C-alpha cells in the first residue's frame, strides 16, 4: 500500500517508518527541510521535504496515496506551536487525504486528551473532531505513556540519588508501551477498513504501573537500593503563581507557564481510560498491546544494550 507518513523523524514516527518498510509498504515520508530520517531507513523511502506549517505548495509535490499516517506532534507543547502542528498541519494532511480520495487516515493522538486542560490537548481534540466529520475513514489512536517518558531518572538513580516521586508515588498509573509495539499497533490499523472514524485507546502489557512501581523497577535494574524523595505536585502551581506576572510581557515566559501546567498534569493524572460515570481511571478498561515490558527495557538500558531515547523539550527529569 502507498502510505504518506508525517512525523517520521520523531520517536514513534521513526518506529512506524521501520514497521511500514518491514511490511513492504511504499512510504512517502514528509519531513521538514534538512531533517534526517533514521540512518539505514532512507533507501526504501521517498522523502518529501516541506515545511508543512508555512509552505502552501507542499501538496503539489505529492502523488496520491491510499493511506495517511500522522505522528506529528508539537515538540514544545507551547500554545502557538500546538495550534500550528496538532491542528493546522494535521488539517492540511486531511485536506490532502480528502482530495486524493485516501481510504484511511490514522492519527497518533494521546490518552491524556480525555481530560483536556492543556493547549496541546485542546488542539488535538479539535483535530479529532475534524477527522470525525471527514468523509475519509479515520482511526484515532490514543496511546498511554511511552517508555521514553519514563527514563528521565535513569542517570540520577545510576548516580546513587533517590528516585523522585510526587506525593506518595501512587497518585497516577499507566500501562507503558514501547515505540516498536506502538508502531506495530499503528501499522496494523491499515488492515482495517473503518466505515467512519474509530477511537482506539491503547497501552502496553499490564499491569498498570504507578511511579512507585517504576522507581522500584529502575532501582532493581541498576542494582541500587530503592530510596525516594517526595515532592508536592502543587510546586508547579506555586512556580506558576510566581512567574505569572512575567508571562504578561513575555511569550517565552507564558510558554514556560504552559510547560508547568503540563508537568502538573502528568504528576497528577493517570494515562489510563477515564470512566466518567465512576469519575476514576480504569486500568482494567485500558486495552493492552504488545510484549515489551518497562522492566525489561530498564534491564536493557542498564546493561547498555539500548541507548536512552532522546527526550527533547518535554523532559522534566
Ligand atoms: N510522550 C508520551 O508518553 C506520549 C504518550 C501518548 C501519546 N503521545 C503522543 O504521541 C505523539 C507523537 O509523539 P513523539 O514522542 O513521537 O513526538 P516527537 O518525537 O516529538 O516527534 C514529533 C514529530 O512531529 C514533527 N513536527 C514537530 N513540529 C513540526 C512542525 N512545525 N512542522 C512539521 N513537523 C513537525 C517532528 O519533526 P522534526 O523532527 O522536524 O521536529 C517529528 O517528526 C504526540 O501526539 C504525543 O502527544 C505521547
The class by helix and strand makeup works out as: alpha/beta
Uncertain runs with pLDDT below 50, 5 residues or more?
none
The percent range for helix content is: 25-40%
Distance from N terminus to C terminus (CA atoms, Å) equals 40 Å
- The H-level CATH homologous superfamily of the largest domain, spelled out, is NAD(P)-binding Rossmann-like Domain
Strand order of the largest sheet: 3-2-1-4-5-6-8
Q: Specify the CATH class of the largest domain.
A: Alpha Beta
The total strand number stands at: 11
Strand portion? 15-25%
Architecture per CATH nomenclature, i.e. the level-2 architecture of the largest domain: 3-Layer(aba) Sandwich
Please give the largest β-sheet.
7 strands, parallel
Overall mean pLDDT stands at 95
Give the overall shape, derived from the CA principal axes: globular
Assembly type of the chains comes to: single chain
User: In DSSP terms, counting alpha (H) and pi (I) runs of 4 or more, how many helices?
Assistant: 9
Sequence of secondary-structure elements = EHEEEHEHEHEHEHEHHEEH
The bound ligands are: NADP nicotinamide-adenine-dinucleotide phosphate
CATH topology of the largest domain: Rossmann fold
Amino acid at each position: 500500500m502507498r502510505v504518506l507518513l508525517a512525523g517520521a523523524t520523531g520517536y514513534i514516527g521513526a518506529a512506524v517508518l521501520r514497521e511500514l518498510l518491514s511490511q513492504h509498504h511504499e512510504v512517502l515520508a514528509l519531513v521538514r527541510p534538512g531533517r534526517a530520517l533514521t540512518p539505514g531507513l532512507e533507501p526504501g523511502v521517498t522523502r518529501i521535504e516541506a515545511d508543512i506549517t508555512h509552505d502552501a505548495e507542499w501538496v503539489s509535490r505529492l502523488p496520491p496515496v491510499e493511506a495517511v499516517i500522522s505522528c506529528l506532534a508539537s515538540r514544545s507543547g507551547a500554545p502557538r506551536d500546538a495550534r500550528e502542528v496538532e491542528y493546522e498541519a494535521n488539517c492540511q494532511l486531511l485536506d490532502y487525504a480528502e482530495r486524493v480520495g485516501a481510504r484511511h487516515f490514522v492519527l497518533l493522538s494521546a490518552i491524556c486528551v480525555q481530560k483536556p486542560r492543556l493547549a496541546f490537548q485542546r488542539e488535538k481534540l479539535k483535530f479529532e473532531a475534524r477527522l470525525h466529520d471527514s468523509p475519509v475513514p479515520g482511526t484515532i489512536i490514543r496511546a498511554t505513556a511511552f517508555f521514553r517518558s519514563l527514563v528521565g531518572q535513569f542517570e540520577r538513580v545510576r548516580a546513587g540519588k533517590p528516585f523522585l516521586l510526587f506525593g506518595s508515588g501512587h497518585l497516577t498509573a499507566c500501562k507503558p508501551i514501547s515505540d516498536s509495539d506502538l508502531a506495530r499497533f499503528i501499522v496494523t490499523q491499515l488492515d482495517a477498513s473503518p466505515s467512519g472514524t474509530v477511537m482506539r485507546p491503547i497501552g502496553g502489557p499490564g499491569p498498570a504501573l504507578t511511579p512507585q512501581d517504576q522507581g522500584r523497577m529502575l532501582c532493581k535494574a541498576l542494582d541500587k537500593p530503592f530510596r525516594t524523595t517526595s515532592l508536592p505536585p502543587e510546586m508547579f502551581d506555586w512556580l506558576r503563581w510566581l512567574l505569572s506576572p512575567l508571562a504578561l510581557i513575555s511569550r517565552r515566559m507564558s510558554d514556560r507557564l504552559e510547560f508547568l501546567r503540563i508537568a502538573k498534569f502528568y504528576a497528577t493524572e493517570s494515562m489510563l481510560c477515564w470512566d466518567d460515570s465512576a469519575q476514576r481511571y480504569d486500568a482494567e478498561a485500558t486495552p493492552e498491546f504488545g510484549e515489551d515490558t518497562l522492566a525489561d527495557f530498564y534491564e536493557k538500558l542498564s546493561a547498555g544494550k539500548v541507548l536512552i531515547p532522546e527526550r527533547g523539550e518535554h523532559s522534566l527529569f
